[in-house]
Write a structure and sequence with these properties.
Layout lengths: L1 H22 L6 H10 L3 E3 L2 H12 L6 E7 H12 L10 E11 L2 E10 L2 H16 L3 E5 L2 E9 L5 E9 L2 E9 L3 H10 L8
Parallel strand pairs: 1-2
Antiparallel strand pairs: 2-3, 3-4, 4-8, 5-6, 6-7, 7-8
């Protein structure tokens, strides 16, 4: 009888864990970003160092195409440290997975990232930090399944500065653009089903 009770308790405990896992919000998909980059004919770089070099070149306006990178664990942590937190403006967080792209042409620059954090609390803290830093002058809100900061600023030239920072579970989606053409940003927002910074 005692053995039967133990089995029953174990089954009940397992059911509760499965139930809680099922209720936990799923994060932003890395595959969605990868598919989007493939559709744009961005070049996939296997090495984190190569991606960093290309990222720097594109932000400096020295190249005219798109590249993207996918990495986990140490590589993901390096991308966070070297690109997102290069000047240590943000706290140190444990990042476990990243997909990111950088694209530049004669119209301007567009970048996008999906970061998976070790836990939801860290993801939320980073989302607040980064969101306030790059889209704090725009709008903040919640939609079904995710939270966001979005900002749209017309510059003195013909270019617009856009930023979108989105939180879902233990993932953060970052979209930033300084360009005359906002189509890439809007297409990525559509792929993820999130509100575009152009609506700020």
């Amino acid at each position: 009888m005692k053995a039967l009770k133990k089995i029953a308790c174990s089954v009940l405990a397992l059911a509760m864990v499965v139930g809680l896992t099922a209720c936990a919000p799923k994060g932003f998909s890395h595959k969605t970003m990868q598919k989007f980059c493939d559709e744009q004919d961005f070049e996939l770089l296997d090495d984190e160092g190569d991606f960093y070099e290309e990222f720097v070149a594109k932000t400096a306006g020295q190249s005219d195409d798109g590249v993207y990178f996918y990495g986990k664990d140490k590589d993901a942590q390096k991308v966070y440290k070297k690109i997102i937190n290069r000047f240590e403006d943000f706290k140190k967080y444990d990042v476990t997975e990243v997909t990111g792209y950088a694209y530049s042409d004669h119209d301007g620059l567009s970048i996008g990232f999906v970061f998976t954090f070790q836990n939801e609390d860290d993801a939320k803290k980073f989302w607040k930090e980064y969101g306030k830093a790059f889209a704090g002058g725009g709008e903040k809100g919640d939609e079904k399944g995710y939270s966001y900061y979005i900002s749209y600023v017309e510059s003195t030239s013909t270019r617009a500065s856009l930023a979108g920072v989105y939180l879902k579970g233990n993932t953060v989606l970052i979209i930033r653009c300084l360009s005359e053409d906002t189509d890439l940003t809007e297409d990525l927002c559509e792929a993820y089903g999130v509100i575009s910074p152009t609506e700020a």
